[in-house]
Write a structure and sequence with these properties.
The protein has twelve helices and 15 strands. By secondary structure, the protein is α/β, with parallel strands linked by helices. Bound molecules: guanosine-5'-monophosphate (5GP).
């Protein structure tokens, strides 16, 4: 058994570079996907506190994508501006409501180029069937992002079902307790690398979305360097003005931001008002610090990724992945003055 690695276990090795400044780096992907889309391939997660309409409008200004959470109505989703729609994706789960909402959205004129089909365990037959049906019904109009899986077998399964982008990540998320509760998972850096290798051998597949586990801007760089076509973020975008989950705190008499996993007890109570007896929670809820407008964090993340590109002589994200070598480390950085 070989040890598999997380982002914190590796570093990107610097090399000679003729890219002298971050301003020479372009983070756009142009005409990506089967239904061409151009933008910066960093994606807000379809979590109730992250994939909000406000987040979509704010991130659209930086040309990032937002996977909207699946609890909006069709009218709410269609209330997004044209840019807001172009830079976001409605989300469907295994439930019938979100699928019906998507049908209503697609009945109307719209600018969506993606749909996100999301379930915790992308290996089950019901999920492949759902992806297959959505591809059959809407495949000429939207790119399909589907997941989550973490192995080449999973990539093949979802590709066969009709996914264009395959979301990779089981258990790396900041609000996730799957690994603790079930003992199932795969270290995220290795999972992304392995799934990218598989995806590159499948003609017509658009690529891998590295989903979860990014804590610092450097982790986003590592995911792109590993070959991810897009990188999805939850926790790094939490606590901003545009995020959801603000709650009144009676001890301080102020509104405080919360962040919770979509499989947490809190999410089940909030969005379904129930919890099935056979189902254990696989997520947690945390109260977090306020971080202000998301555009500051966006700038910081893009600055970090641009800088990573200059260290390996990359003018864009494709070159970042081509030029990157990795080393395994015992310690990622110096914590003498905190994290
Ligand atoms: P983060 O960027 O916060 O590390 O990870 C975000 C990802 O965590 C989401 O896109 C989703 O794939 C995953 N996630 C969200 N909520 C839950 C949950 O309750 N349980 C699990 N296992 N994963 C979750």
């Amino acid at each position: 058994m070989e040890t598999q690695l997380d982002y914190s276990d590796i570093l990107i090795v610097p090399r000679h570079s003729s890219v002298n400044s971050r301003s020479e780096v372009d983070l756009m992907r142009v005409n990506m996907g089967r239904i061409p889309w151009s933008g910066v391939p960093i994606v807000a997660a379809n979590m109730a506190t992250i994939g909000t309409l406000e987040m979509a409008e704010a991130l659209a200004k930086s040309m990032w994508l937002t996977c909207l959470h699946k609890h909006y109505t069709a009218a709410e989703i269609l209330s997004l501006s044209r840019d807001g729609q172009y830079f976001s994706a409605p989300t469907i789960g295994l439930d019938t409501t979100s699928r019906e909402t998507f049908r209503q959205v697609m009945e109307k004129r719209n600018d969506f180029k993606f749909v996100c089909i999301d379930v915790a365990n992308g290996y089950i037959d019901n999920f492949s069937e759902l992806v297959y049906n959505i591809r059959r019904e809407y495949g000429d109009r939207v790119n399909i992002i589907a997941g989550n899986v973490v192995t080449p077998e999973g990539v093949r399964l979802l590709c066969k079902a009709g996914a264009d982008f395959i979301k990779v990540g089981i258990g790396p998320g900041s609000a996730c307790t799957t690994r603790k509760m079930t003992g199932v998972g795969f270290p995220q850096f290795s999972a992304v690398q392995m799934c990218v290798k598989e995806a590159r051998q499948i003609p017509g597949l658009s690529g891998i979305v590295a989903d979860g586990g990014c804590v610092h801007p450097g982790d986003v760089s590592k995911a792109f360097a590993a070959g991810a076509q897009m990188v999805m973020l939850g926790g790094m975008l939490a606590g901003h003005d545009e995020a959801g989950g603000w709650e009144f705190d009676y001890t301080t008499n102020t509104m405080v931001p919360t962040f919770y996993g979509m499989a947490s007890e809190h999410a089940m109570q909030t969005h379904y008002n129930q919890r099935n007896h056979y189902r254990a929670a696989e997520g947690k809820r945390v109260v977090i610090e306020q971080k202000g407008p998301v555009e500051n964090t966006v700038r910081e993340i893009m600055g970090g990724v641009r800088s990573a590109c200059t260290y390996v002589g990359a003018k864009n994200l494709d070159e970042l992945s081509k030029n990157s070598d990795f080393i395994k480390v015992n310690r990622q950085y110096n914590t003498a003055f905190g994290d």
